[in-house]
Specification:
The complex is a heterodimer of chains A (about 425) and B (about 250).
Chain A: H1 7-23, H2 28-40, H3 56-59, H4 74-79, E1 87-91, E2 94-95, E3 106-109, H5 123-131, E4 135-140, E5 145-155, E6 160-162, E7 165-170, E8 175-184, E9 188-190, E10 193-198, E11 203-211, E12 217-226, E13 231-238, E14 243-252, E15 258-267, E16 272-281, E17 287-296, E18 301-310, E19 318-327, E20 333-342, E21 348-356, H6 360-368, H7 373-389, H8 395-412
Parallel strand pairs in A: 1-5, 4-7, 5-8, 6-9, 7-10, 8-11, 9-12, 10-12, 11-13, 12-14, 13-15, 14-16, 15-17, 16-18, 17-19, 18-20, 19-21
Antiparallel strand pairs in A: 1-2, 3-4
Helix pairs in contact in A: 1-2, 2-5, 6-7
Chain B: E1 2-11, E2 14-24, E3 29-33, H1 40-48, E4 54-62, E5 65-66, H2 72-78, E6 80-83, E7 90-94, H3 95-109, H4 117-130, H5 136-139, E8 141-142, H6 148-162, E9 166-170, H7 178-191, E10 197-202, H8 206-210, E11 215-220, E12 223-228, H9 231-239, H10 241-248
Helix pairs in contact in B: 2-3, 4-6, 6-7
The chains are: A alpha/beta (about 425), B alpha/beta (about 250).
Chain lengths: ~425, ~250
């Protein structure tokens, strides 16, 4: 397989691509996805969900598929948080058994294509499904606490594009913390899809650290289907990539199911990052929590789109959504779009958004106590982020996030 | 200790301080009293280095330092402390961490060794106890959800831990009931000594019953129009500001 067309032309070439795949006897999902991609192409500016995040910079790059040349990724590996847990390392979208430490209960194979992988409903999922080479399937058996697993993606640059497709299934009463880290060097496109199924009374804690190279593109889609009393507990920290979009669809399918989609986006320079969520309350007594914090400097642009759908059956839904942005520069921009679609009549759904600068009174107060201006600013930014970080109960995961934020702040302190 | 000469300052081109002359010697507590709008808070902000105030003339020498040339944090490290009239809330900033960061920042700036967590905890708990503050006030976010009295006590706690050479108390009595007032006054009095001076800014004489000043100055229209002993505060309380302002005019 060797796709060298720019993505903008790949749509027209998808049928030819399909023909080549057919010759290799690839999965039927690919056939379907390629047909869908040929018909629909990439998301465009006329689509309501993509108005704030234009993919033009992505479509202009002539991406290539990963080749088989060995890549030295020791630098990237050294940047990973030191956490004593099994790790699954993907380099340019391909699983690297030699760098990984296999946890029990994990199976590998060609792309996972989980149950909620829906190329017909999402253009980037179609692209992923069409081009996906690898992925992991993690199955945690019922009643089992699988501890922590690191899922690491390393991009090596050279205009490579990769589309890993992962599936995670947490059995009833089971638990897993997935520390999901994306990093790399140079220019590349990482377009992963992860489909998670969370069983009854089970918990998937999904801690995401997006530290892609500043020349890279990160377009990720997560589906989380949560059964009764189950929890999809996530926090996503976006620090990297030139253009990033994290899209999360959480379906709360049984009573007492809950989803936490907390996030922080810290951006500088010309970075653009978009956190888009769709939470579907499809059963009574379900709860969702979203605290999204943005710290924007330079000419950075942050986007948050949060949709909450409450079905007629989903009475006693408890939804909370808060998006806050701290603009550290007059040229930074935040776009925020909350959307509530509520068909039940007995629900509690609140949402709010604030955008502001560092508070001059707070800065002065700290400085009168002897704290230098740079440290005072850092303290106030940390304080601003704490509401999104505080719910993280995983000690190592929290420490990894804090360390990444410190590194970011050292680079962007002004 | 503090020597202010002919200090003038503007806000937005409006002259607020019109030539302040004031000397606070080592170990003395001076009170500045004055009607609303007389420039009391402006004086405290100019001395502590708040942005937005244009110093147009004069000088303020503090312990040998040219105060007006220094950043707010450098003034703090030199030993100046401002107790705010309206202490600022800092959501997400733990009170103990804040205080320890401040103390160690000042100690670093002075070339002194930092205090470790245990030594700091011991110090801050002892001071909190002296101010009848529950331990949990140190664990809460700075001033968030504090009552008016708790905020003022928290200011005095910071002062007690930071041990300034000169404290400016900007209407620390406002919003305090009599019990809280006594606690705050006790906190200030505990620091009194040959190496501690204070400038107590207040509208009312009441606070000065508990923090008895060495000198009282009346600030009106951006100038100190009269100075005297503690009895001047009683005279103000009896006659009101208008009489003294008229007398000075």
């Amino acid at each position: 397989m060797n796709v060298t067309l720019p993505l903008s032309q790949l749509q027209a070439g998808a049928q030819g691509f399909l023909a080549r795949y057919d010759a290799h006897g690839m999965a039927p999902q690919r056939t379907e996805a390629a047909a869908l991609f040929a018909r629909n192409g990439l998301p465009g500016p006329r689509e309501e969900d993509w108005r704030y995040s234009l993919l033009r910079p992505v479509t202009d790059v002539r991406f290539v598929s990963p080749d088989d040349a060995p890549r030295d990724v020791s630098d990237a590996l050294a940047r990973l948080p030191k956490i004593d847990a099994p790790r699954l390392i993907f380099v340019d979208g391909r699983f690297r058994a030699d760098l990984s430490d296999l946890p029990a209960g994990v199976t590998f194979g060609a792309p996972a294509y989980g149950a909620s992988n829906r190329p017909d409903q999402h253009k980037l999922v179609a692209l992923n499904t069409m081009l996906s080479e690898d992925g992991v399937t993690i199955r945690v058996p019922a009643g089992h606490d699988a501890g922590t697993i690191l899922l690491v993606s390393i991009g090596t640059g050279n205009d490579v594009s990769f589309h890993p497709n992962h599936a995670v299934t947490i059995g009833d009463n089971a638990r897993l913390t997935l520390l999901d880290i994306a990093l790399g060097d140079g220019v590349y496109l990482n377009n992963p899809v992860l489909s998670a199924t969370v069983g009854g009374n089970a918990t998937l804690t999904h801690l995401r650290l997006q530290q892609e190279a500043l020349g890279a593109f990160h377009l990720s889609t997560v589906y989380a289907d949560v059964a009764a009393s189950g929890t999809y507990d996530s926090f996503a920290l976006t620090l990297g990539a030139r253009l990033a979009r994290m899209e999360v669809h959480a379906d709360l399918n049984g009573p007492q199911a809950s989803a936490h989609l907390n996030a922080a986006q810290l951006l500088g320079g010309q970075q653009h990052a978009d956190f888009t969520t769709v939470i579907h309350h499809a059963a009574p007594n379900t709860a969702s929590r979203q605290t999204v914090k943005n710290v924007l400097s330079g000419h950075a642009r942050g986007v948050f789109q949060g949709k909450i759908e409450v079905d007629r059956i989903a009475q006693k839904t408890d939804g909370y959504q808060m998006n806050q942005a701290l603009l550290l520069s007059p040229d930074a921009e935040m776009d925020c779009k909350p959307q509530l679609e509520i068909y039940a009549d007995d629900v509690k759904c609140s949402h709010g958004a604030t955008i502001g600068e560092l508070d001059g009174d707070q800065l002065f107060y700290l400085r009168t106590r002897g704290i230098a201006e740079a440290e005072a600013r850092s303290m106030l930014v940390r304080a601003f982020l704490s509401e999104a970080l505080d719910p993280i109960s995983h000690v190592d995961g929290r420490a990894a996030m804090e360390a990444a934020i410190s590194l970011w702040w050292d680079r962007h302190a002004q | 200790m503090l020597e202010i000469k002919n200090l003038t300052a503007n806000i937005d081109d409006k002259t607020i301080l019109k030539g302040i002359d004031l000397v606070v010697p080592d170990g003395e507590v001076h009170a500045i009293m004055g009607p609303n709008g007389s420039g009391k808070s402006t004086l405290s902000y100019v001395l502590s280095g708040r942005e937005g105030y244009d110093v147009t003339g004069g000088s303020a020498i503090f312990d040998g330092f040219d105060l007006l040339e220094m950043e707010p944090e450098a003034r703090a490290a030199a030993g100046l402390f401002l107790a705010f009239q309206y202490p600022v809330e800092l959501p997400g900033v733990n009170n103990a961490n804040f205080l320890r960061t401040a103390l160690n920042a000042q100690r670093r700036a002075r070339g002194e060794p930092e205090l470790d967590a245990i030594a700091f905890l011991k110090l801050s708990r002892a001071e909190a106890k002296r101010l009848s503050m529950p331990d949990d006030m140190l664990k809460r976010n700075v001033n968030v959800g504090f009552s008016g009295g708790e905020k003022k006590r928290n200011e005095v706690l910071q002062m007690a831990v930071l041990r300034p050479k000169l404290a400016i108390l900007d209407e620390t009595d406002s919003g305090l009931d009599i019990d809280a007032l006594k606690i705050v006054a006790d906190g200030v009095n505990a620091l009194r000594g040959p190496k501690f001076s204070a400038l107590v800014i207040t509208h009312y004489q009441r606070l000065l019953d508990y923090i008895v000043p060495d000198r009282v100055h009346v600030l009106a229209g951006g100038r100190i129009i009269r100075s005297g002993g503690p009895e001047l505060a009683h005279q103000l309380e009896a006659d009101g500001y208008a009489a003294i302002v008229a007398e000075a005019a």
